[in-house]
Design goal:
Length: 310
Amino acid sequence: MKVILISGRHGGSRTLELGKWSRALLSLCCLGLPLGLVTWGYQAGQASEARSVRGAALDEMQDELQRQAEEFEELQALADRRLQAMTLGLAELQARITRLDALGQHLTAMADLEEGEFDFSRVPALGGPLAGEFSVDFDSGALSAELDRFEAQLDDREQQLGILESLLSNRHLHDQRRLSGQPVAKGWISSRYGMRTDPFTGKQAMHHGIDFAGQEGSDVLAVAAGVVTWAGRRPGYGEMVEVSHGDGFVTRYSHNQQNLVEPGDFVRKGETIALMGSSGRSTGAHVHYEVYKHGRSVDPSSYLARTRRR
């Protein structure tokens, strides 16, 4: 192979003859250089793409870690709020138990119950076999167990108070039905039960009640709870109120100026049922008070001095 080199400066030329190996080397240079550039460009592109893929993967992982960190912070904040709420609930339960204990001790003292029958100063007795080994986390498990303990205390206190309330209620009903005290708030005894000189005839006669003199128009009180069985005028008694108290007891309040109740009314102990007057066979303002037991007149004196039964 011949290669002619022409010089533009002197117009001369020069001929080079290439051998077998020279031609091979020249061909290799002419073809290898473009192929090398293409190969290098391809490899460079692959490397750049790989770096881009790795960069995108790293960015995605970083975003995922950031999201998980934010979720963890939210869960931690929620747990803190729940723990705070449980702590406040525990404090509220403690305050409730303190109030219940104080109320229970006060009611027990008022009811004059035997010591030890209702004890609001001690933790309720509890027990049972261990269900199994377990670990307790101070922030959650221990607090939950404490809440359960206080709940058990509340149940015990509420049960004791329920029984105590029932006892006091029954005692209150018994006290309401029990005859005691006077039928007037203000007044004095002007005539007692038994034989006396009749103020109208001057002869000895049986007086089946006790007279309480006082100011006209003052209150006449029921000595016990019961149902009104009579409210109206009756010969000799004038305006009269009769109350049935159960267990065979009946009381009468007569010579009233005005009756304030009607038959069928339920009256409580100490309730005003009439106004004091001088109606009927009477010489002045007073209340003629009678007590009947199983249909027989009895002396009311034994019920006047009665006090609340312990």
